[in-house]
## 1
Amino acid sequence: MIKQGLIGVVSFLVAWFLRIWFATCRITVHGSEFRTMMDEQSKAVIAIFWHYSLVYVFYHLRTDSAAVLVSASDDGDYIAALAKNLNFNAVRGSRNRRGMRALKELIDCLKRGEHVGIVADGSQGPPLVVQAGAILMASRTGSPILPMTWAASHYFSFRSWDRTALPLPFSRIHFCYGEPFTVPTDLNGDDIERYRKELEIQMNDLYHQAWSLYDKEEH
């Protein structure tokens, strides 16, 4: 009970701190036509992004309502609480804990017309390698996948498996939407893997294009 209270207070303060922090940044959006295309169609959308970009993505999309997949680990408790403070509904699950149950919950959200956000490379990596969850969800629901990423002129990266990054105050941020990615319904086996690889190529192309704006190959 004490831990939950502490997590709630910390996440509330962090959410407001991020609002102040990122408000100092100059943001340029690329691929807004893809976002508009998704806003104008009738199906719920699967937003997909790399793990390194998670914190700023949550902030950037804070005015949207969506269910987001968050790791079921203890560290994920803080991310889930932060997501809630930024207007998202956290569905808990990871590869080794509640993974299939979380996937079913997200599919139900999509079928109800609720947008979903998912980390492409999962909670444990490897980094910049797409896992199959988004492909499965899209195949079962017909929802399109909307890739997104960001790059910043100045940022701090943590010594984590994915080098989680945060844009620094007063930096310039390029937020990039990619072309929507669709898959046929009821995929199985080899077809899932084929579309997973195609999505991974598209995600990494978008990632490299974003960071090339600052003459970098990666963050």
## 2
Amino acid sequence: RIQAGWVADLALIYRRTGERLALAPIEPFDLGEVALAVASMADGLLHHWMCDPERVRHDLMADVVTALTSAVVVPAEQ
């Protein structure tokens, strides 16, 4: 339930940000799926960091989220 709540909150943040910036996800993605993918990557990177902190640079998650989000959104009028 905690993770589902976090994914829902993240999807809401993406929705509100998309509305403010006039962006929409490209097909076949929806914002819930993007949030789930980001949460899953965060979980995986946290796991790897706990096993080997030297291997995961501190800003990797931010860079991955930026790249993923940029790749799956377009101006809403398209």
## 3
Amino acid sequence: MGDLTTLANLEEYLGLTVPPLTNPPSAATESMLSRLISAASNYMQTWMSRTIALQSYSEVRNGINGNRLVLKESPIVSVQSLNINGTVVPVRPPLGPGASIPPPWGYVYDDISIMLTGYLFCQGYQNIYVTYTAGYATTPPDIEQACIDLIGDWFKYRDRIGKASEGIEGQTISFLNPAISARALGVMQTYKRVYPVY
């Protein structure tokens, strides 16, 4: 699914590379952090039911006799091809002043869906084939920071695995051990795919 942050950004946030360096991170620590970056990135994207990085997709879908089709990945950046029942559907040119009536037939798209003019996503099974590009060219800053926060929690948790509290010099320190921190969860809910895809 792709990493949502870099080792350099994570180490900076954790204070591991902030001068003056009295104890720089070892190769073993950097290897562990790299593994945590991949694990947290995969965990977040699975939870959000989406891939963040920009990439190409091909979908074979069922038609339901509508003129709008919500695609699985977003935001949609471009649509390379659309085929319905073996017919190639062209891109519809933009409509503006002086546009012909009726308008030209074809498709247009927004961030999440393809819309048709003069065509239908005809009812059928596996009769629609679309190739498109969707995602973000660079990880949104809030998603990256949520990933860093999550990794930071995981990184610190290794020193208190299984502990709910700890007594030190007559004082008790209680630990919160949520699977996802409240900060990260708030961001992930913003990006979570919640609309149905048929």
## 4
Amino acid sequence: SVVLVGLLFLEIFYFRFHTYFQETIVNETLPVLSPKTDSDKVENIEPQTIVNGSFVEVDAVHKGSGVAKIIIQDGKRYLRFENFQVTNGPDLYVYLSESKTPTNKIKSLDKYISLGLLKGNVGDQNYEIPEPFRGYDTAVIWCQKFGVLFSYAIME
């Protein structure tokens, strides 16, 4: 029985099921320009939203909600999540895809780029989009370890 318990813990550690029951909360502010001064005038320029969309539930286990948007600030483009929440899991990454119909098959994402590890499964967060990626208007939360789609938002 000790061996069985040990094997059970090894399996839980490998598959990281415990991550489904944890929350990682992030609260990043909008990227903003440094205030510019011109004759004692202070000017704050708000980022411009290009496209936005809402995260959807993929199935009964993999659920997402909140808004994804692509914004421009000071010539840089960012993917921003607001009021974001997704089922937590192991090895979650943020992708931008050209696909309007993502599924649990990586090929369904068509052309995509990785913006890195998901910072948190709850809260507002920003991901800088490298040049020259334009037209990648679907935000995807993807588990790389198991090739599973957790949620996505088609932005228009």
